[in-house]
Amino acid sequence: MSITAERAPLNGVDTPTLFATLDAVKGQPDIAKFQFRATNRWISGTHNQSTMHTFFGAGQEMEHKHPTVIDADHPAVLVGQDHGPTPVEYVLGALAACLTSGLANIAAARGIELTEVTSTVEGDIDLLGILGLSDSVRNGYKDIRVSFTISGNAPPEKLRALVEQSRDRSAVFDVITNPVPVALDVTVV
């Protein structure tokens, strides 16, 4: 059974293509298997650059329209030159971006027109763990809080439900809240 619905694009989301994609994946579940990648290069000190360009998806190698290069560094108070956000700040940005993207898609699929969506993500981290000064303090965030402000042409409970469903379907929320096996490999040249 097709889940395609006759809807015009909404909130900047190409809703017909969204439903067509859902139908395609429903018919061929193997095309849902994606592999995203990032490469990184050390520059100096705590400054490094990551590049996101190629990925595997829909059964084939693909690439973004152009490579995206992001700088990461530490601020001066953490012995860096502040060429970019810290890596842990990118985690917060990724969480906000994933939740917002999902929210926009879900709103469009439900026919809800959004007029504003903003969010603030805060993470509390104790450097005693990263600096190796305490074995009882974890290296990463101990708490993360996300606050959304949202408005649109739906009752408040339906707008809140958009955020809840986006959280339930967010890949980044899942990565942050559930353990993921991470394999490290080292080549010495």
Give your account of this protein's structure.
The chain is α+β, with helices and mostly antiparallel strands and 189 residues long. It folds into two domains: 14-73, no CATH class; 86-177, 2-Layer Sandwich (GMP Synthetase, Chain A, domain 3). The chain is 32% helix and 28% strand. The chain has five helices and six strands. The protein has helices at residues 15-27, 87-109, 127-130, 156-169, 171-177; strands at residues 35-36, 39-44, 47-57, 60-72, 114-124, 143-152. The strands form two sheets. Strands 1, 2, 3 and 4 form a four-stranded antiparallel sheet that branches. It has a two-stranded antiparallel ribbon with strand order 5-6. β3 and β4 (60-72) form a beta hairpin. The longest helix has 23 residues, at 87-109. The chain is globular.
Tertiary shape: globular
Classify the secondary structure makeup into a structural class: alpha+beta
- Supply the number of helical segments: 5
Which spans have pLDDT < 50 for at least 5 consecutive residues? Answer: none
- Domain tally: 2
Q: Major sheet, described briefly?
A: 4 strands, antiparallel
Strand content: 25-35%
What is the C-level CATH assignment of the largest domain? Alpha Beta
Number of strands: 6
**What is the gyration radius calculated from CA atoms?**
20 Å
CATH superfamily annotation of the largest domain: K homology (KH) domain
Give the helices and strands as they follow along the chain.
HEEEEHEHEHH
Q: Helical residue percent?
A: 25-40%
Amino-to-carboxy terminus distance: 54 Å
Mean pLDDT rating: 95
In CATH terms, what is the fold-level topology of the largest domain?
A: GMP Synthetase, Chain A, domain 3
InterPro entries: KH_dom-like_a/b (IPR015946), OsmC/Ohr_fam (IPR003718), OsmC/Ohr_hydroprdx_reductase (IPR052924), OsmC/Ohrsf (IPR036102)
Pfam family, one: OsmC
Protein name: OsmC family peroxiredoxin
